[in-house]
Amino acid sequence: MTQEITTTDRTPISKTNAPVIEIKDLYKSFGKNEVLKGVTLTVNKGENLVVLGKSGSGKSITIKCLVGLVEVDKGEINVFGTDITKLDNTELNEIRIRIGFLFQNAALYDSMSVRENLGFTLKRHAKDLTAEELESQIIDVLESVGLSEAIDKMPSELSGGMRKRIGLARTLILKPEIILYDEPTTGLDTITSREISELILEIQKKNKTSSIIITHDMPCAKHTSDRIVILKEGVIHVEGTYEELEKSDDEWVRSFFI
Description:
The chain is built from nine helices and ten strands. It is of the alpha/beta class.
């Protein structure tokens, strides 16, 4: 059962904004391996929700279910008020275009330059753009992640942090209302991780996005989260702010903050 923690030192976003994501009693198994055993959570409009959990706890599977990359066994996933588990591919794609997904490895096309990576994504969904409009949007989104100078570089010429930023630019170019971050700072040094965390906050503030951030990086969790949930044995074990969970009476919960 989820342990509820009441916010005492600030007004949570959940009290002021309606949910854009509601996951109810979500189950997913792979053969005999039960990964999700009744996950229930909400993400409110404009909120950054961080999801923590030990390796194999189902964090990444949860967000893959959320965009239909993994088919659920049972449960509801309401996004913008629509249960996506009941949609066909055409209907699901209409929802997906409103959701950005930053994969762990940034998932850039290695044979394309940065300009081509961003242009390819944009042209798939905005076929009526002129060449000038396309170029303008590419430049604008690169400026938003601080990498205008990388426009003609190939992915192989980019550092890990730059690849993350370009991956994020490719996500942002479609102006998503929800962004799903899967380990956004994995493999990065401390300074670059901090820069990515700052960028996540800038995007939230500027674009009013709602986000789920899967991470093992506690400084990232502290810096970016409005609220945190922790998965344990396939369910949400506890939720609260970083400060609340850090002071939890639950020894297992506190072990994340050591």
